[in-house]
Amino acid sequence: MRCVIARYPFDLTKNGVLASMKGITPELVTGESVTIGRRRYPVKQVGQVLTRQDPRDFTAAEVVRAMTRLGFTCHSHPDAAPVRVAATPLQTASALLGAAPLDA
């Protein structure tokens, strides 16, 4: 499939993307991401690997559009981390002393 990223045309295939990303460790996902194989990569990292350009030269939307057309699953935001409720001082002291947890 022919696509344009940072004003340059690229011929990308799904198998070519899979081969290019094989062995690449995903960076921390903080924004848009794409699932390639069993891993989730930031779209800017994928664009950098595929185009060999600086990530500042293209937008995440260009890469998302290309990856979507190739059949990859794109995500608009990272998974939200579970919110942890802070323990009260009494619960903290009880836990340190080995007592059973108190219901708040």
Structural classification: alpha+beta
The number of helical elements comes to: 4
Give the total of beta strands: 5
- Main sheet characteristics: 3 strands, antiparallel
Short description:
By secondary structure, the chain is α+β, with helices and mostly antiparallel strands. The protein is built from 4 helices and 5 strands, in the order ββαββααβα.
Could you characterize what this model shows?
36% of the residues lie in helices and 18% in strands. With 104 residues, the chain is α+β, with helices and mostly antiparallel strands. It has one domain. The model has no long low-confidence stretch (mean pLDDT 85).
Keywords, separated by commas or semicolons:
about 100 residues; alpha+beta; three-stranded antiparallel sheet; two-stranded antiparallel sheet
Topology:
Blueprint: E1 2-5, E2 8-11, H1 14-21, E3 33-36, E4 39-42, H2 43-51, H3 60-70, E5 73-75, H4 89-97
Antiparallel strand pairs: 1-2, 3-4, 3-5
